[in-house]
Specification:
mainly alpha, Growth Hormone, Chain: A, globular
Length: 383
């Protein structure tokens, strides 16, 4: 890893602390919504959908600004600051509406920073080593999640899972969030500015080709359960609230161990092969949930981790290698991830509430299988 640029390493530490804070919220937020606020699965689905969808326009706008006007680091700093301040306020929520608003605010921060951050990583990556660089950054990102889930488990195990404890844990996320903001402000160097565009900005043919190649990934995200639904399923099959963070530790631990390897694999074997493997892992995760046993759910979280890190690294590296206007394409990428993820969460939550968990599981498994078959046919993997 000696060839990784120091700015990428420092951005990795920013993501580490930011995701450590997120990992102290994400595993228990669905439990907080359902058991403390006494809201239904339809409300959980709406919260996930709103939080995911609200940032999609900002992702495209921030990517466009980064490309057209060379404004990169200020967007990254502002995005991390929004997220650092929004998560602690969840401890004050009294209903699903305030949770949705605060999650939306936190996603605004992610939307503002995501495309410019990836543009910075790509700019400081050596030629033909984009997979390795993104794999390293994702490894640091997920290591933060892994640390946060273990910390959350220890705190819940020691203090219990009462409403007061959960609200205090939300407030405590302010500290790691601010550490990340300080690092990005003072230790990460901005990328060289491009000349401001004097003509109307257009995507190139290479940019459009990159976006088309991502369509199967977007469809897969529509059908596969979100982490919140994985958590709700775990609770349904009898896994204790105090153990929920360990499920996330399984997923993030797998991602931490494999992210760098998937990045190297993407450089050596191509993103198509790595993406195909990731889709297979996503199907396995959904199939294991379908079995509805505690043991299968533990395994499902491991396969969810493999799906997440393999497909994300492969797609980010593909954009870095093929696109001309990387900031804009990253913006479109994250916007579509948000749009399809939000629509899928809303649809899945409605199915679960109206027809039961089994129907939601059936549709998710059938949908991911169908998308994977189409991907294999389109990419010629089964010739």
């Amino acid at each position: 890893m000696h060839s990784i640029n120091q700015n990428v390493v420092r951005l990795g530490w920013v993501s580490y602390f930011t995701d450590l804070a997120s990992a102290m919220v994400n595993p228990i937020l669905p439990i907080f919504i359902i058991t403390v606020l006494h809201e239904g699965m339809d409300k959980l689905g709406l919260i996930v959908a709103i939080a995911t969808f609200v940032s999609y326009a900002l992702r495209m706008v921030s990517g466009y600004i980064a490309d057209a006007y060379g404004v990169v680091k200020p967007l990254v700093v502002g995005g991390y600051l929004f997220s650092a301040l929004a998560k602690p306020l969840l401890g004050l929520s009294q209903g699903w509406g305030s949770v949705a608003a605060l999650r939306a605010l936190e996603r605004v921060g992610k939307g503002v920073r995501s495309a410019p951050k990836d543009l910075m990583i790509a700019a400081y990556s050596q030629e033909n080593m984009h997979g390795k660089t993104f794999g390293f950054h994702k490894m640091m990102d997920i290591a933060g999640e892994f640390s946060g889930t273990l910390l959350l488990f220890g705190l819940l195990w020691y203090f219990g899972d009462s409403e007061a404890v959960i609200r205090t844990l939300f407030a405590a996320t302010l500290l790691p969030g601010i550490i990340g903001v300080v690092i990005v402000i003072f230790l990460v160097r901005d990328v060289p500015k491009r000349e401001q565009c004097t003509e109307r900005f257009w995507l190139s043919a290479a940019d459009k080709k990159s976006v088309v190649q991502l369509l199967f990934y977007f469809l897969f995200l529509f059908f596969i359960f979100s982490e919140a639904f994985f958590t709700a399923q775990a609770k349904t099959v009898g896994i204790a609230t105090a153990l929920i963070p360990l499920l996330f530790a399984v997923s993030t631990g797998v991602q931490t161990l494999t992210s760098y390897l998937f990045g190297l694999g993407s450089d050596r074997f191509g993103g198509k092969a790595v993406s195909a493997f990731g889709y297979g892992c996503g199907i396995a995760a959904q199939a294991l949930l379908w079995l509805q046993t505690p043991a299968a759910t533990w395994a499902a979280f491991a396969f969810l981790g493999l799906f997440t890190v393999a497909t994300l690294n492969a797609n980010r590296a593909m954009i870095a290698e093929q696109a001309d206007n990387r900031g804009s394409v990253y913006g479109i990428f994250y916007a579509a991830v948000a749009l399809f993820g939000a629509a899928g969460a809303a649809f899945g939550g409605w199915l679960w509430e109206q027809f039961g968990m089994q129907t939601a599981l059936d549709v998710a498994l059938g949908g991911t299988l169908a998308v994977s078959v189409l991907y294999g046919v389109r990419k010629g993997l089964w010739r």
